[in-house]
Fold this protein.
Amino acid sequence: MTILVLLGGLVLLVIGGELLVRGAVAIAGKLGVSPLMIGLTIVGMGTSMPELAASLQAALAGSPGIALGNIVGSNIANSLLILGVAALLAPIAVARGTLWRDGGIGVLAACALLAIGMTTGLGRVAGAVLIAAMLGYLVLAYRQEKSAAGHSAALEKAEALEAIDPALKPGESQSAGWGLSLFFLLAGLGCIVGGGTLLVGAAVDLAIEFGMSETLVGLTIVAVGTSLPELVTSAVAAIRKQSEVALGNVLGSNIYNVFFIGGVTGAIAPTPVPDTLVRFDLPLLVAISLAVMALAWTGARLSRWEGAALVAAYCAYLGFAAGVF
């Protein structure tokens, strides 16, 4: 029953995230917001709503292991599992400018979260700093797109979701009336709040029933569950030979997870960073982020065998985290 409740929470989070984005995109389009700004903010952040709801509600419930474990575990899953699956489906060509800019910012984000864990914890000041970093990244991405100097991971993250659901494109979604748009927005919010509550409650119960730590549950079950939208969008992009979109979706998600989700969580519900994350998982995330950049840099692409290596590394990580070996 606990597992069914957890799965139900995940389903509500995914459905709620899509409804929320669809309603917000339609309303923003009617208000005259540019499609570029809609893609960078509403669509980009909307794909991170399942992770935000889980982390924020876990922090409010006094479960820092789930709140921070979800962020760290989602980024590890993005870099190993999701990127590996995408490369297995189709080798990923790498634009080195994108890799250095967005991949580098992702590494800095992981280092910032590690520094926060080693010092102050995820308090309001740290949360405000992360939010400021998120805003700075969006400004950088906006200028990048306006100058036609190449796509940013932030916009590619939005394009990956729009490829799955064309109704999320500003031009398409504006056909809905104001009433329907507001309904989507409010229904999405309701599903996200309800789904997050169910997910966090079931995750805590699961930890108790099976003698697992809340941090382990957050790093694995919750993180993988909330990362499923990124897995689907990156896989579809890879199948359609849109390799840059698949890579950008992962890099953009990693940045949003730390700066946006970590920042909002810290600002609203200050929470300590569990010691186990500081001692092992966060340093590992930094190492993984650097390793992925190195793999992509060496051949300007991620091959299928490198994708298989990434997936195998994620399986090894899960086995180590669970104490299998």
Summary: The mean pLDDT is 84. The two ends are 29 Å apart (CA to CA). The longest helix spans residues 178-210. The longest strand covers residues 92-93.
